Amino acid sequence: MGMHPVQVIAVTGGKGGVGKTNVSVNLALALADVGRRVMLMDADLGLANIDVLLGLTAKRTLADVISGECDLRDVILQGPGGIRIVPAASGTQSMVQLSPLQHAGLIQAFSDISDNLDVLIIDTAAGIGDSVVSFVRAAQEVLVVVCDEPTSITDAYALIKLLNRDYGMSRFRVLANMAHSPQEGRNLFAKLTKVTDRFLDVALQYVGAVPYDESVRKAVQKQRAVYDAYPRSRCALAFKAIAQKVDAWPLPANPRGHLEFFVERLVQQPTADSAV
């Protein structure tokens, strides 16, 4: 039981509006397409929107799991392409600040389903609040989404700096979203590495660029993922290529898998800030 390694990928960005949720959903679909069993967790605990984006109705959410009203299996939604979705509770303030005990219950719930799962993608909230930091530092891979706006690079840097300085994290993967050309994506990555190389001891790896594509807006209006609605669009093809790269990332070395670690680290909150 629980011997199956699960890759936990947190999709984050610092700034709102960089297309994080779109990246999370379409990457999940593209990974399912290469044969991975994927679960997508909406960890935007205050303003959840994955279910809305995909036109799904969540009857129960993570809030119900945490309050002990139901099992994690009871809240999982079947999404397109065979992906499973764990909806968060939109607008429920109590979800934004979970106690360590509630976090532990959440972790146990995830550990119970690790046997039929290969990848868990976590769509974090915008900003660099406690909830974002908890999920990101607990994940095995961190995918930072940036776009061509000065505030996007500044906020991505702020997030990386915080995680590096306060939590010793040193490895981040970067994805350029809504890029008008492959070169623009590389330039964004170069801008970010220029500041991180100068001020931080971190290693950034460039994953690639997702092009700006009108199909995304059309897909959103249809409440479908662009990968599903327009599989031949430039955007969908970019996600296909990125999923193949992600598929080659190393799995957790520990045979117990990564879900238990994910949950344990989620609960081990530093007490320094709570004492202030």
From TrEMBL:
Pfam families: ParA (PF10609). The keyword Nucleotide-binding applies. InterPro entries: FlhG, MinD_FleN, P-loop_NTPase, ParA/MinD_ATPase, YlxH/NBP35. Gene3D superfamilies: P-loop containing nucleotide triphosphate hydrolases. Keywords: ATP-binding, Cell projection, Cilium, Flagellum, Nucleotide-binding. This is Flagellar synthesis regulator FleN. It comes from Pseudomonas benzenivorans.
